[in-house]
Structures are given as C-alpha cells and as structure tokens.
Amino acid sequence: MLDVDAVLGDPRVRIVVCCGSGGVGKTTTAAALALRAAEKHGRRTVVLTIDPARRLAQSLGLTELDNTPRVVDGVDGPGELHAMMLDMKRTFDEVVLTHTAPERAREIFANPFYQAMSSTFSGTQEYMAMEKLGQLRAGDRWDLIVVDTPPSRSALDFLDAPARLSRFLDGKMLRLLMVPARAGGKSMFNLVTASFGVFSKAVQKILGAQLLTDLSGFVSALDSTFGGFRERAEQTYRVLQDPQTAFLVVAAPEPDAVREASYFARRLGAERMPLVGLVLNRVHRSELPELSAKQSTEAAAELAEEHAMTAQALEVHALLMRQVARESTVSTDFTDEFPDVPVAHVPAQPTDVHDLTGLRAVGDALAAS
Amino acid sequence: MVLNDSPDGPAARSAHDTAWPARLHVVTGKGGTGKTTVAAALAFALAAGGHRTLLVEVEGRQGLAQLFELEPLPYAERRLPDAGPDVRLLAVDPEEALLEYLDLFYRMGRAGRALRKLGAIDFATTIAPGLRDVLLTGKVKEATTRTDDAGRRVYRAVVLDAPPTGRIGRFLNVTAEAARLAKLGPIKTQSESVAALLRSPMTSVHLVTLLEEMPVQETTDAIAELSGLNIPIGKIIVNSTRPPLLADAKLTQAELKRGLVAAGLPVDRRTVTTLLAEARDHQARHALEQQLRGELAELRRPMLELPLLPDGIDLAGVRHLAGLLRAAA
Fold it and tell me: Tell me: the pLDDT tens digits for A316-329?
C-alpha cells in the first residue's frame, strides 16, 4: 500500500511528478496531493498544471493563464498552496528574453520557425514543463513542487522530448543538412556522406530553401546567445534522478492506461528515477463481494416479474461485480510485474471533482488506501 | 432477398450510403473514451457485405496490434487474420512515410535507410512542425483515394484512429500548419490536396465520448473547433453506456427485503444496506448521465450509443459493437 502522507510529509522530498497517459485523472491527482501537502503537512506548495479542465482550474483560482504561481484561496491549515498553469509560448519567450539581448530576441520572435515551434511544436510543451520546473526549483521559494505532465502521445515523452529537442537545437544536424552536395562526389564509397548530399537537396526541395534559411537563422541565434539550453535541460533531468524527486505513475484500471503505466515504470527503473508508487484512479469495489455476479444475475432473472425493483438492484450489483473483476484482472498486469511498487486505489466518484472539497476527498482516499 | 445478400445489394449499401456516407471516417475522442475500439468496430461494420476497409493508426502506439493481440504492425497494409470481413490494418509511421515519399520523388532507396540510422529522418520530421502531420494525413489520403488498374477504389472505406480531441484540430488543419513554413514546393501542394479531401463530403469526423463531464466538454470544444475549420463532423458516439436500471423508481428497503427473501438470498443488514447504496449510486450516476446526454443532444449532431462491455473488449466485443454500429441509421 502506498503511504502518500509519508511522501508528502518528508521534507527531503521537494518534487512530486505525476505521470501517466491522458484521461486518467493526472491533473486531479496532482492538485489533490498538493492541497494535502499544504493542509496536512504545512508545506509551502506549488502545483504546476499543464492543461487542467476548466472547472478544476477555476476551483484553483486559475482564471487566467499568466504563467506565474497564484495563491489558492480557501486552503485550511498551516501551509500554502499556489497553483499555475503552464503557458508554453510565454515560457519559451521568457527563456529567450532572459538569455538574449533585446535586439536579438526581437529577431528570434520574428522568425517564423520560432513562432511555429514555440506554439505548436510537439515536444515543446514537455520541454517547457521541464524548463518551468527548473525555474520553480531554482527560486528555492517552495518546499514542494507538484508537477502534472503534458497529455502527450506517450507518457514517456515527458522524459524524452526535452533531450530530443535540445539535440536538434544544438545545430549539428542542421549544419550537416546545409552541407552542399559536393561532399558526396569526393567519397564514392561513403554511402552516408553521399546520401546526405542527396538528402539535403531533397529536404531543400520539399521544405523549400526559405525554411532552411529561417531555421538556420533561428538555430544560430540560439547557438550564439544561449548555448546553455541543452545544459539546463540535462540539469533538470538529473534532478529527476535525485531522491528529492518522487514519481507517481497515475493510471485508471483500463488496459491501455495500465500498459502505459508499465512502460513508464520500466523506464523509470532503467533511468534510476525514484518511482514511489502507482495511483489507480476510478477503481470500483463492492462491500458485498460474496454475492457473485453470477448468483446475482440468476436471482435477478428469477425475480424479474414479481419483484422487478429488487431484480434491477441485483442487476446493478452484478454489473458492478463484473467491473470489479475486470479491473482487478487489468491492474494485476502491473502488480505482477512490479510487486515492490506500492499502489493507492482511489474509488470512482459518481461525479467529477471541481472544488477544494472534492480535492480533499481525493486526498483522503489517496492517503487511506 | 437474394439481391440483399449480394455485396452491392440495398442492405449492404444502406449502411454506407445512409448511416455512414463518407469514405474517410476520422474517429477522435478524449483519451480513455475507447476511440480505438470504436474505430475498429466501425471498420468491421463498414466491411460487412464484402467491402474492403482499411483501419489506420497514426500515433505510433500500436493500439491496433494490442486490441487484436497481434505482433506490432509493420508499415504495410495487412489483412486482419481470421476476421471474416476484409479489414486491413496499417500503422503509419511518419519516418517511413517520409522515406516512402522521398523514394517516390527522389529515388532515395537504400540511402534513405542509412539516413534513418543517423537520425536525419527523425530530425526532418521533427524540425518542421506540420511536416509530420502532412506526412501522416498524406498517407491516409493516398489510401483513401487509391484506385486499382481498372480505376476502382481499392478501399470502400478508410477508418482513421486519430489523435485525441485535444490535438485533433491541429492534426487535421494541415495546410495552416504547413503553410506557416513551406510557402512553395511539394509539401505545400501535398498539404493543399489533403486539406481539400478533409473538407469535402468524402470525410466525416466522429467524436467518441463517455457520459462523463470532461469527455463531454472536450467533445463540445472539438465540434466548435472543427466547425470553425470547415471540417465535416459526423456522429457523436457515446461509448460504454450502462443499462437504464432503476431509472424512474424508488427502491425501498421493504421491497428489497421481500425480493431477496423470494430469491432465497440473505437479508442481513449488510446485504440490504449495501445493495441499497449501490442502487442509489447507480441512480445518481444515471441522473448525471441523463444531464450530459441532454448537453450532447444540444450539439445537434446525429448521436448513437454503444453499451459498456462489462467483461472488457476482445475480438468478439469488437464484432458485437460493429453489429450495433451497422444497425444504427
């Protein structure tokens, strides 16, 4: 069983990262944990959300996307809760402004490649989440930072996208691409060099020379003015391997979500990143497990005419029991592979969570399991 | 009756021409709503009557292979084994799509593979935002419009297991994305032809949702976004619905006890209170679901519902859902 309070109350733990596939309740889990850290453990906490549901955002006072932590009203207890929503474009702009002379920054902002990349690039969101985490941590203003991760194609993108992006931004590949085709003529037997000439021509044809010029301008501007880009991403990555970080994998008892959780847990193991537990959201259970689905269905059939209401109540119970059985089968796939990873079960709520009372209830459920 | 059984008979045609008129069916939905399952069921439904149908995934998740318990799918159109209907599966990979494209236009051949090893292909599909989506949607368009030597369409229908609602607008709005960067050249031409298909009656975007607040909200948002982009919207498919048990009635403790006695079941306090509590939870959920149904109905799109399969999804489950989709008009 996962002891959430031991994690949230441990002063050595400074960062909690909630990861998992989309639609499993990551943001709600992150917000509930942050609220509990503030209220029960008196910690000065900030929760970094990526793309919260509107009503959850409102309950945290996140009515505008201004990219800075705002204090959450209505928090009881000794700690403080601040919340913020990541604005990826603005975070990127701030990075540029911090590390670049104003004139150069204007040049970068005007570059169409920068405009596209800072607002739509897949991977930028993950990178900027990592960057924001780095900034929050560097300020040393917070006892605890709780991070929700972007709704990526794969949960692993949170770990991979920043490294991939910074690899591309360091310009090596671009310089190779810009190499004129003549390099190929000299070394007949070097397939790689030769194909690069062809490739670079092809890429120029497909993308157009304009794009490569824009890109080249963008990369050289980045290169000369803030070469520390990659370095900072790597630094933040190393912090994630430190015991001050606690990873929680969030899933729902559905095959896809549990499979994604397993991928992520495996990866964390390989990277020696501290996985402290699995949060299984929206779990169903019955207080009457001894009345089986089969028994219940049979009794319902028998009663259908004379006692229609009881029959339907028994059908409701049978449906629930089947769902409990299916969920248990699905989550066993994870627990069999990771017997040492503690699990917290959060019962399914009849309605969605969109206020602090609801978040407190989720926090209690997390701690009780 | 004999006519009805032939592939082009009225019965077979009706599923395509009335209920599911488009040729390219894009299936999206919030993560966790079961869009892959629904996409697969729709492909089965459209293949009924002997029509060849292609089921495509583009997210690199191998969701189809997992659903059908197959080895990871290659970048090739393979017939689903032992399935009866002619459903072919394809996992489009942007790198492979770019290599195919380069090969077609520049005869890159082996050299392209070497570049892949170097990471250059990954680089090219990553540096140019939109290029990736142009390649993915371009491949889908190619399959949708492909004809054989006699000029007949190879696929009667193509079903795309598309990115989730949060990314669907950007994914389908390829021209805008590509035009930001490529003002001329083959990418622009390609993206324009894809955009034309996606905005034509050949295409229909279906939204899969659950009767839960967030998926319904995202469905509403996605419909607004897609309408703004002039991309044709098809049906709202409400997935995993529960039977309307105890819908309009109050179950009393006395009635429950009488019923349990009649069935020879225990009537101890715990049994009775638990069953009552479960019934009340079910009713609370049902009330919320009704409210969300009402919100979806206000979107004024054709709507249909698929039941929750309480034991999980397997091939039999997909076939079952396919039957329901086919029957829905």
Answer: 999 999 999 999 99
